[in-house]
Design brief:
By secondary structure, the protein is α+β, with helices and mostly antiparallel strands. The protein contains ten helices and four strands.
């Protein structure tokens, strides 16, 4: 099933429309309302191209990974990147017991963000599977656009809405990423085990808004009663697909 993609341009258009509607609602002249909408669109577009990955990393309160304390993570990332000719991303840690990870990219480079809780729960093979999944995401054409649009939505009135699934195109996208990740590691049980670790734990990030749910490996939203967007693919279904390999 094809989804409508929400790009930075359409986000700017939505912002402009909102400003125009408010301006007209408070009885400002039409010309002033249109000018206000134009200014809003320009500001949104400027913001969306201004270090969006850094904005998101700051938003989720991630810290630079200590490569000594997180040497296992550093070795897994280095090994996969070296084996497959992938530029090494910068690594970040969110100090939370929740289990999740995400990938973002912009002109400054690529970034992988892991929660402390996830790293504490997975073994090396499971971690390798999850890292492979994130590295595959970094190679997809839509990751940069998704990062920019996500950075924009975190600063808008609709940041608490689960609009993330519309940022990634096809509903099959996440399954394809899982499959490609297994091709990197050649060990499906690793990714299966990593996803099961997510499935059996709390994956919602308190500092993250639902509008960026599409960036996480497990894109549930809603805190302790986390659910999936109707157009998303549940983690249990992704695990089942991998188990059929």
């Amino acid at each position: 099933m094809t989804r409508t993609r929400l790009t930075v341009g359409s986000t700017a258009a939505l912002g402009a429309a909102l400003v125009i509607a408010i301006a007209i609602g408070i009885s400002l002249p039409t010309v002033i309302a249109l000018l206000a909408g134009l200014v809003a669109a320009v500001l949104i577009l400027w913001w969306g191209t201004r270090n969006p990955a850094g904005q998101l990393i700051e938003r989720v309160r991630a810290e630079p990974a200590d490569l000594v304390q997180n040497d296992r993570l550093a070795h897994v990332v280095h090994g996969l990147c070296l084996s497959h000719g992938i530029a090494e991303p910068q690594l970040w840690i969110i100090p939370t017991h929740s289990r999740n990870a995400m990938a973002v990219v912009d002109r400054s480079g690529s970034h992988l963000v892991f929660t402390k809780g996830l790293l504490a729960e997975v073994d090396r093979l499971q971690l390798e599977g999850l890292v492979a999944h994130l590295l595959v995401r970094l190679g997809k054409d839509d990751i940069a656009e998704g990062t920019r649009a996500a950075a924009l939505t975190t600063r808008t009135p609709w940041r608490m809405l689960p609009i993330g699934p519309w940022l990634v195109g096809e509903s099959q996208h996440i399954v394809d990423v899982d499959m490609d990740a297994v091709s990197l590691t050649r060990f499906p049980p690793g990714l299966i085990g990593g996803l099961q670790t997510l499935f059996h734990g709390e994956t919602a990030i308190e500092s993250a808004s639902p509008s960026i749910s599409h960036l996480w490996i497990d894109d549930r939203f809603g805190g302790t009663d986390a659910i999936y967007h109707p157009q998303s693919i549940a983690l249990a279904d992704r695990i089942e697909v991998l188990q059929e390999l």
